[in-house]
Amino acid sequence: MKLYISADIEGITGVTHWDETSKNKGDYSQFADQMTAEVRAACEGANELDEMEIIIKDAHDSGRNLDHNGLPMNVRLIRGWDEGLFSMVQELDDSFDGVAFIGYHSGAGMDGSPLSHTLTTGILSISINGKPVDEFMLHAYIAAYHKVPVIFLSGDKSLCQEVIKINPFIETVAVKEGRGNSTINIHPERAIELIKAGVKKGLVKEKGDLMIQLPEEFNVEVEYPRHYEARRNSFYPGASLLNSTTVGFTTDDYIEVLRFLHFTV
Predict the structure, then answer these.
(1) CB-based contact 159:140 (threshold 8 Å)
(2) Count H helices, E strands: the chain?
(3) Do both 201 and 233 map to the same domain?
């Protein structure tokens, strides 16, 4: 079997403040260690089922957070960024049996985490077909594009609830709950246990049940905090200025959505 794992840090157990996500801050190292531990748990859950090929994308900030020595020997780790359209799921294709998302978080404008954002903190929101989207949804659609099932997600409670609404068969583990500018967290060791069990459970489900369906058309809107940013990005080919701070773009090809976001976000 072949498993893809995309790992972020804002949805890792305990992470509450931006300082805990930044390499140059003193609080960072213990949460980077927990990020590695939670990703390792996902790998161990998979490895208990079968001889696995596991590809992991370190998908936070510099892309250089995970300790490869703390992961199983059958893991290949993608560090840094290739600057391509697939971003947090670089190298994902139709050869994979499943994709898991570890440490993901609520999107921009949502109240599920003190660290809510989508792709960058420099925008107010991204929506598709009238519904706000987060980093999970943007990258789960890439899995759908390649017909790869989404087997698992861990992160904040609000995001897990959104994922269950999209597809109730996807295994989720809520390691924390956002409350204003605070988080309420389960114990780090408990998070590791639940992630290991959740990935193992997700991998044995019927692939058809775990698929996410792509819309037939994508009406994308990006809202910026400053009017001149919207004006500048409205000149992207096919885009239009919907109001003073919002740019719209419509296509029936999800790759074109990714291209639009690549150059305007």
Answers:
(1) no
(2) 6, 12
(3) no
Q: Domain check: are 137 and 48 in the same one?
A: yes
Q: How far apart are CA 164 and CA 246, in angstroms?
A: 29
CA atoms within 13 A on the CB side of 70: 14
Q: Rounded to whole angstroms, what are the CA distances from 10 to 31, 33, 58, 198? A: 10, 13, 13, 19
Q: What is the mean pLDDT of the chain?
A: 98
- Do 258 and 193 share a structural domain? no
- Token digits for 196? 């290991």
| Angle, alpha carbons 77-78-84 (nearest 5°) | 160
Q: Is 140 left (phi over 0), alpha (psi -120 to 50) or beta?
A: alpha
C-alpha distances in angstroms, 35 versus 154, 165, 190? Answer: 11, 26, 14
Cβ partners under 8 Å of residue 194, min gap 6? 154, 173, 175, 186
Q: Are residues 244 and 170 in the same domain?
A: no
What confidence tens digit (pLDDT) does each residue in 154-190 have? 999 999 999 999 999 999 999 999 999 999 999 999 9
Q: Give the domain range for residue 11.
A: 2-210
- Alpha helix (H) ranges present in the chain? 28-47, 135-145, 157-166, 188-203, 227-233, 254-264
Whole-angstrom distance, CA of residue 53 vs CA of residue 193? 21
* pLDDT tens-digit map of 200-257: 999 999 999 999 999 999 999 999 999 999 999 999 999 999 999 999 999 999 999 9
